[in-house]
Design brief:
alpha/beta; globular; 8 helices
């Protein structure tokens, strides 16, 4: 582990996680301890692990509905494991192609006792599910013009895409106009979550798959 100091837990964390805060603390500590070694996070992320990654992810939790949510390119478990901690009433399928990350996700969800998590090793376009997803999430995976065609076939009619994006999300939406039409998405919107609550807001592309 790097000798860079991990960020102290922000005051907002307990309110956002409620009675699940101890699990969030355990996950964050595990990620701080093993994340750089396993190539899950960069060495410079420790001083902002809570604010940039953990809180950034948990802000999406209220957008989820009870059902099955797929997290594409789950990586370190951001947002998949964070959301599984915050929403025990939702089932999560973490989809990740890299073996060492799959091993991490599998071990971490077991260590945390997250019985609402299933891990699948696959790329989005190769994923075969026995049932369509109610919602699909992704964070820092690829541009919307690429992500929408890859994930639309996995989502049921009436299901939702909930993708965490960067500051240029509006440009991505414009560039993805053709993909949005082809996937027959409706109720397309960009949400900004956490303003006035956390240091770094979360921007979300949300749309319904018709």
């Amino acid at each position: 582990m790097s000798d860079i100091e991990i960020e102290a837990e922000p005051a907002q964390a307990a309110a956002l996680f409620g009675d699940r805060i101890e699990l969030a603390r355990a996950y964050t500590a595990d990620l701080a301890r093993r994340g750089e070694e396993l190539g899950l996070i960069g060495p410079l992320e420790l001083p902002r692990l809570w604010s940039r990654h953990i809180l950034n992810s948990v802000l999406v939790a209220p957008l989820l509905s009870p059902g099955v949510v797929g997290d594409i390119g789950s990586g370190a478990g951001l947002p998949g494991i964070v959301l599984a901690i915050a929403r025990p009433d939702v089932s999560f399928v973490l989809i990740e192609p890299m073996e060492r990350r799959v091993d991490w996700l599998t071990r971490e969800s077991a260590d945390l006792g997250l019985d609402n998590v299933k891990v699948i090793r696959a790329r989005a376009e190769e994923t075969k599910l026995d049932w369509p997803l109610d919602q699909v999430t992704a964070r820092a995976v690829s541009a919307l013009s690429t992500l929408i065609p890859l994930t639309a076939p996995l989502v049921k009619a009436g299901g939702e895409m909930i993708f965490m994006k960067g500051a240029r999300v509006d440009d991505e939406v414009a560039a993805a106009a053709k993909a949005i039409r082809k996937a027959r998405l409706s109720d397309v919107e960009v949400l900004v979550l956490g303003e006035g609550v956390v240091p770094e807001v979360t921007r979300v592309f949300r749309a319904t798959v018709d």
